[in-house]
Amino acid sequence: MAALAVMATDMYAQTRKVQNKPYIDNRRFHYGFLCAVHSQSMSFENNGHINETTGEQWYAANDRGDIGFSIGVLGEWRLNKYFALRTTPTISFGQKHLTFREQVSGKEVSESMKSTLISVPADIKFSALRFNNHRPYLLAGLNATYDLTSHKQDAILTKPISLYAEFGLGCDFYMPFFKLIPEIKFCVGLNDILDKNRKDLIDKTKLAYSEAVNSAKSSMVMITFYFE
């Protein structure tokens, strides 16, 4: 029995490593910066509208996810051993690729909708116990964004403000001089961002695309690297 106890102790000791920055998690506040790649998408509720003049019936879809990039800053407030509040003000550059298909003729029209988003999320972060030099975590929260890009001449006009529910997971890696934190996050749009007011639209033929849609919601997948 004594030999088994010694062997178990030796095996446990072998799995333990020297901890980098062992007291960094005791700080009340944490700061850093981030860089990320993301994919924006938009889902539509099509209404099957038929134009009385042309007889055309258009349907809208977001047919692919294009890659964009983001930069921002990190601020985190430690609540206790497991929980923290976190905000990551971010600016994101990306686009959504939209396709409109006419059901009778099969004609397709595509358009890329570029966006410059200012995001201010508020998340709660739940972290597991640290083991050696890594510590996994889960997070959830809300994310408010404002689109700086004007879409008045696009096929679909969207409101500038979007609200997302977001969920994610990541892991803190404790390096000798800093923390590296990779994370994947899913953002699901909560509000209808479709704007039906097209009084400023110059090309009136694009009205057919707006008339075909009842509502639109945005979503995003983001892979982020934090440096703290």
Helix percentage: under 10%
Shape: elongated
- The CATH architecture name reads Beta Barrel
Output the structural class. Answer: mainly beta
How big is the Rg? 24 Å
Low-confidence stretches: 1-13
Number of strands: 10
Strand content: over 45%
User: Biggest sheet: strands, sense, closure?
Assistant: 10 strands, antiparallel
- CATH fold description: Porin
| Level-1 CATH class name | Mainly Beta
Order of helices and strands: HEEEEEEEEEHE
Brief rundown of the structure:
This protein is mainly beta and 228 residues long. Helices cover 8% and strands 57% of the residues.
What is the topological layout?
Layout: H1 2-15, E1 29-46, E2 58-65, E3 67-78, E4 83-87, E5 90-102, E6 108-127, E7 134-147, E8 161-174, E9 179-189, H2 207-211, E10 213-227
Antiparallel strand pairs: 1-3, 1-10, 2-5, 3-4, 3-5, 4-6, 5-6, 6-7, 7-8, 8-9, 9-10
How would you portray this structure in words?
The N terminus is likely disordered. A hairpin with a 6-residue loop joins β6 and β7. This protein has one domain: Porin (Beta Barrel). Strands 1, 2, 3, 4, 5, 6, 7, 8, 9 and 10 form a 10-stranded antiparallel beta sheet that branches. With 228 residues, the chain is mostly beta strands. Helices cover 8% and strands 57% of the residues. The protein has 2 helices and 10 strands; from the N terminus they run αβββββββββαβ.
